[in-house]
Write a sequence for this structure.
């Protein structure tokens, strides 16, 4: 039914956007950590 | 503190009077808006009359952004704010002075606009107590939030274009409350108007106190 | 900077445990990340298959399993932004400024998703994408407020000025949340219509209730994971900028001594 399309769109859109955002910050994090000295990125 | 605030407000208003930017630029812009709304909304179908409250406050908000911008660009040019800070005035009194100056200019603007909508939109002004109470409380709220954001705009070069985006969502409750109160006062909608006025009052008190508190860190980092 | 806690690097912390070079992940984020992945899988199974359609809402309740957690996580994010803003004005440490900024960015993303979900829900329930439903309207106004906050942070200036200005905006914005809520509620008071939250049965039970709480938990864990990564990225960006500034100065010096 038509309802299903909207429901699936909501779920796909939500998790898709979060995944895209997560991929974006992790990639930027990788790139940024290349130029930063080791002692500035010792997490925990 | 009140005397210091009056000092700052007096200085601002004198500067404003001499430059005539408010009278020569902002006020004509506001009147232009009143005219443009008539072009946008068919004047023959009573839309303007029914929407008088909302249109009035829309114009006040737009013009208010300009007044706020103006009130701080004056400071930036001459480094006046630095001088004020060094003169030993407390940040809170400088803030309240700015608020008073902005509010005074807005009140003049609103008086002219009220006459303009009464004539051009064929709206009969009534419910004067509520009308005036709304004008005063909403103006304090706009000036209170505006003065805080004005100094933000001054601190950041290139933030002038950002001021409307920062200020207008914050003032959305003022637009809602003031429009609803006007609608009651003008007889466009039933129901008591005082809850709306009370909401405007709370908004004004909250943002005036926050502004007075937060002006110090904003000034310190000039 | 004792308040740095575990989010930011501090030299004294066991150097041997440093993770793979060149990323913003650590053991904590890996745990959080896997937890959210498993949680999302479970939420999909429960939300889309196991739970029965609601007695009143029918299938549309499945959108609320997304809608309610995203908006809740967004409010948590903005409260963290406000706390970070207040703490920044008080302590003046980079940690709080970057935390506030990172949290706001994720909050804006979640608000955008809330509005998106809400519009799809409205399309099914009302037949149109948009009605001036109070919650949706409030969310949109606040979304724009926080877009302004993020825009301010993009203006190039000194770290201290940026921190002060955005802290002030972060505080003003959070105070505006309840005021906007109240104002919009009253504004729409005369037009009672099916609201998004109003239709959720307060006595929801069984798997529906479980799924609702599962969604909330999953999104909070997901938010924590995103926040830590985003914070570390912000931290690295600051360091990288300092470094390029240092290099530029060194280059200038070298030029000066060569000529």
């Amino acid at each position: 039914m038509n309802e299903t399309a909207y429901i699936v769109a909501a779920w796909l859109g939500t998790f898709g956007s979060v995944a895209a955002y997560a991929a974006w910050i992790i990639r930027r994090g990788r790139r940024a950590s290349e130029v930063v000295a080791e002692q500035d990125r010792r997490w925990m | 503190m009140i005397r210091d605030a009056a000092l700052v407000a007096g200085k601002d208003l004198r500067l404003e009077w001499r430059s005539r930017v408010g009278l020569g630029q902002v006020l004509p812009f506001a009147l232009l808006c009143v005219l443009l709304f008539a072009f946008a909304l068919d004047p023959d179908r009573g839309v303007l009359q029914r929407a008088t409250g909302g249109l009035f406050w829309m114009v006040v908000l737009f013009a208010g952004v300009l007044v706020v911008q103006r009130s701080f660009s004056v400071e930036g040019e001459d480094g006046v704010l630095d001088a004020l800070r060094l003169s030993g005035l407390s940040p809170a009194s400088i803030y309240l002075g700015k608020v008073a100056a902005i509010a005074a200019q807005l009140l003049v603007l609103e008086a002219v606009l009220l006459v303009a909508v009464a004539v051009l939109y064929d709206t009969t002004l009534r419910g004067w107590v509520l009308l005036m109470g709304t004008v005063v409380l909403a103006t304090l709220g706009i000036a209170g939030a505006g003065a805080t954001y004005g100094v933000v705009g001054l601190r950041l070069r290139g933030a002038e274009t950002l001021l409307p985006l920062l200020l207008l969502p914050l003032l959305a409750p003022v637009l809602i409350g003031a429009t609803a109160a006007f609608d009651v006062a003008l007889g466009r909608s039933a129901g008591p108007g005082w809850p709306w006025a009370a909401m405007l009052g709370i908004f004004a008190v909250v943002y005036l106190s926050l502004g007075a508190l937060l002006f110090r860190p904003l000034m310190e980092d000039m | 900077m004792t308040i740095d806690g575990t989010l930011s690097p501090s030299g004294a912390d066991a150097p041997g445990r440093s993770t793979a070079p060149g990323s913003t992940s650590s053991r904590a984020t890996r745990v959080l990340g896997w937890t959210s992945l498993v949680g999302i899988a479970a939420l999909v199974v429960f939300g889309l298959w196991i739970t029965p359609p609601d007695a009143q809402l029918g299938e549309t309740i499945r959108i609320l399993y997304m809608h309610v957690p995203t908006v809740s996580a967004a409010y948590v994010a903005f409260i963290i932004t406000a706390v970070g803003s207040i703490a920044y004005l008080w302590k003046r440490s980079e940690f709080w400024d970057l935390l506030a900024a990172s949290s706001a960015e994720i909050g804006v993303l979640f608000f955008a998703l809330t509005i998106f979900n809400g519009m799809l829900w409205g399309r099914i329930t009302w037949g149109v994408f948009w009605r001036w439903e109070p919650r949706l309207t409030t969310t949109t106004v606040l979304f724009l407020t926080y877009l302004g906050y993020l825009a301010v942070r993009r203006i190039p200036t000194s770290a201290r000025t940026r921190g002060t200005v955005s802290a002030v905006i972060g505080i003003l914005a959070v105070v505006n949340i309840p005021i906007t809520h109240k104002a919009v509620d009253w504004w729409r008071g005369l037009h009672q219509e099916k609201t998004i939250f109003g239709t959720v049965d307060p006595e929801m039970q069984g798997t529906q209730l479980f799924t609702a709480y599962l969604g909330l938990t999953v999104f909070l864990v997901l938010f924590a994971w995103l926040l830590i990564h985003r914070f570390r990225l912000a931290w690295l960006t600051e360091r990288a900028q300092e470094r390029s500034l240092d290099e530029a100065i060194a280059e200038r010096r070298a030029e000066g001594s060569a000529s």
About this structure: The first helix of chain C runs from residue 27 to 50.
